Amino acid sequence: MSSLLALLYVILCCLIIIFVPVLAAPHVAQYGAISVFDTSRAVLLATALASVAGYFSHKQGTEGTFLLRLFIAALMVRMIVGTAIFVFRGQDFFGGDALTYDFVGFAQVQGWAGDKYLGAAADQFIKAAGSGWGMVYLVAGIYKLVGRNMLAVQLVNSVVGAVTAVLIFLCAHQVFKNVRVAKVAGIAVAFYPSLVLWSSQGLKDGPIVFCLALAILATLKLGQKLSVRYVVALVFALLTLLSLRFYVFYMICAAIAGAFVIGMQTITATSFARQLAAVLLVGLALTYFGVTRSANLQFQEYGNLERVQRSRLDLARSADSGFGRDVDVSTTSGALSTIPMGMIYLLFAPFPWQVGSLRQSITLPEMIIWWASFPLLILGLWYAIKYRLRMIAPILVFTFMLTLSYSVFQGNVGTAYRQRAQLLVFYFIFVAVGFVLVQEKREERKRRRLEALVAQRAAATVVRTAARSH
Question: Could you tell me if residue 98 is inside a domain?
């Protein structure tokens, strides 16, 4: 199976290299001339990163083979979707931010090469954006290696999105010690349509979700054993999140700190010392990189409800899919009263009666799957809180905080649908728990019926034997 997947991957890479220049030719005005050499560089860069991610996946103990296959399959799905978006120039339809990052990333490369005008334009965007500058540097770094090539950015993001499924598998297994739960969670993250869509474009959503999963996994591992490797991984994930979406960084920091304070296992002198050491190491590393100074500046700029109200109102009025235009979250009472409606839209929108365009229509199949799985999410949450509360603390605190935050300042169905991906990867862990609980109950009922049937047949045999003997 692994060999077949590897062969299919090689065939897919060859098809991309050969046919993308021909299929994308009508968009030469937007992309410039695309040659086989350009597509080859994009594929080679993605393959190099995929080789590292695949090796990491394969080295994960007894489930390494499964994880390698999951990674390759998830990667190929994302590469197909990303390539289709590229050749048909679907960025405006699916995610216009990709075009912005393409332009600013290229401007940054030119600025590094000495072009003061484009360099100043890139610097101005980074200062004005307040967040997301990490994606600019990621795009610029890729362009520095392979030239201006949006396909390369999409393929790199595809690798990042595919390995996120592996990280979620490891998170689920670390908490619940159940391979079935981990496999269901990993498969859901690998192939759920919106998670595939957002991680196969030149958007920052894929790297954000990857860093969140990496931060949670590193936290869970550090709660079990102090390791320099996982301290470095956690610091890397946190700093990258700060560069991509700063408020998510603060929420995940609060969740991680809370998890270390309450402890993810029974408190002993050894575990307390380990958790304290982990907190100090991470805190010192973040302080060294100037996070404290950045936090003060960002809280002064964005840390008030009036700013949240302006941002939310802009989202609500910017498109037909806006909602809650009359809501005022500039006061504490207004923000709290918005949470119920905002949470419903965040978790369940778009609704069937809101479908008014092709973009909204194509979300319905996956939304039906999500609505149907929500009872499993509730069941899985109940079980996890009852039996694994300490272990799931970082996941639970983070998802709760981010769900409440998005419920307050999201005013657009499309944006809520997109940013729900940051939560879905963790929701799917609890969905997997609920699914396995239901499956185990069914198997238990089936086993009992089988045992009853065997006992009934055995009793009937005894009766027949006794009757013959008389």
Answer: yes
